[in-house]
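W.,

You were right to be curious about this one. When I first looked at the sequence I had no strong expectations either way, so I just let the prediction run and decided to look at it fresh. Below is the sequence, 281 residues in total, followed by the output.
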Amino acid sequence: MIGIVVDSNSQLPDSLGERYGIEVVPLTVTVDGVEYLEGVDLTHQAFYAAWDGGKAPTITTSQPSPGQFVEAYERLIGRGCTEILSVHITEAMSGTLNSARLAAQMVDVPVRLVDSGTASFGISCCAWAAAEAIADGANVESAAVIAEKRAGALGTAFIVGAPQHIERSGRADRAGVVAASNDGIPVLSMSGGALAVLDTVTSVEAAVGAMTEYALGWTPSSPAGLRVAIGTSDITSASVSAELTDALRGHPALAEALVQYAIGPSVGAHTGPGTSGLFVF
């Protein structure tokens, strides 16, 4: 039996995690000097509350320890898994994969590591593809290759509530996100950990339109059609996500119903409240 592990930067919804029995290893998020484990003792609601009242919290993130990965691998082994597929945030953005690499040497079953080449729900998209393949009878190596190919077939478009956080994090290297925000609302995309400005618009409605057009223009990775997941950070972006959902729900280009996910602390640390967007494949 093959087990699957992701890190919490994947923003994996409970529905997908439960469907495929996926283990999630939490990143550490430090808010104003206090350390939390993402999704364990820090929910996305509590995280965004740190901005209440106009506060500007100091936030950093760090990868899980090898020991945390060992614990996750051992839980899967305890459930009868004889092989493990471990899918993680791109090594270009985090040391998470290296922690998993060290942990893989400490357990008694083979662990196949996958650099997703992406972050946030993009990791979940890769793990989702692998899980479906495994459910259809694929071996661990075939599933890993499918996950790696999915990384190259992903699209993402989003708006952020705090562009300056992206600039300070180094995620917007030469992308000019803050400069674009001076002219309107930048609609962003990401590939291989590098950000780009897709468009700069003057209203939320136009941003929703740009993201919708981007998603529907994407080449689906399945003959059945597109799959789209919509992410919401907090109450300040909920209306944007709702408009985006309404614009896409039931569209004939979609293979199935839209997936909804929460944009949690390890992503929100770099984008702030008011962030909304989508992944498409």
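Here's what jumped out at me. The radius of gyration is 18 Å. And, maybe more interesting for your project: The chain has two domains: 2-27+63-151, 155-280.

Coffee later to discuss?

I.
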